[in-house]
Amino acid sequence: MSLFVPKFDESVIVRDAEAEVVGRAPTTVKLLADSSRTGGALSTQRVTLSAGADGAKPHWHNNSAEMFFLLDGAADILSGEEIVTAGPGDLVIVPPGRPHAFAAVPGADADLLIVITPGVERFEYFRHLQRIALGEATAESLLEVQERYDNHFLRSETWDGRRG
Q: In this predicted structure, what is the pLDDT of residue 137?
């Protein structure tokens, strides 16, 4: 195991009122700190999902682990072939290479803090998702940027069977 030492000199402080927000209900993402601000240590965002809303479709990251901390509500989190239902205060960490997805439990809202470590520049990825939602880019355009954002999509029968 190698030790990664991030390179940044100042504390990162993100005021709630100053954080960029992309999307709108049912899926809102508050961009908190990207890899470039944390010396590569992590990327973090807060995702708020309205009742039963999808967060992310099944995917994996080759080089980063992803942490999901449920601040409020209830969320289904795919980890490999298992779906965990998380409640307030629950933590799920998915290792690199393991398929995962997340969504609010049907009929419930979910508020999640998500951290990817080591960090990947992810803010532009979320802006890209917003352009897709606004019809300014196609869903297929995500396939062109999978390597850049270390976000690789796949089908999951487990997830599809639970989420429909």
A: 95
